[in-house]
Amino acid sequence: xxxxxxxxxxxxxxxxxxxxxxxxxxxxxxxxxxxxxxxxxxxxxxxxxxxxxxxxxxxxxxxxxxxxxxxxxxxxxxxxxxxxxxxxxxxxxxxxxxxxxxxxxxxxxxxxxxxxxxxxxxxxxxxxxxxx
Length: 132
What we know:
By secondary structure, the protein is an alpha+beta fold. The chain has two domains: 2-66; 73-130, CATH 2.40.50.140. The chain contains three helices and five strands. The chain has helices at residues 2-34, 41-66, 73-77, and strands at residues 81-86, 91-96, 99-105, 115-122, 125-130. The chain is rod-shaped, with a radius of gyration of 26 Å.
């Protein structure tokens, strides 16, 4: 059931994203109608097929990105590897991705230069374990 809800939610996101495109297309047709420009049925069908193709391609291109693991914020930092800059006894400083963070060791004391893996994030302090 969860997968079906996820699919419906994904389609709703795509349809909302396409609302502005549909509004522009409706505006173009309205302007053409106002100036009495006749649009043949085959042209309308071609536009419909092109719009349908666009929705299909968008579905295939966008949906995988909606289901990707978060890579920013606290969720994205779990599992990242850093290096100890100030010894963790049990608290100190580590460098992760060029940034310095206060950290707390979950494995006891860890010396400068040792690798650590981020386990948890509490406020602005990283809880780490020694890199295996």
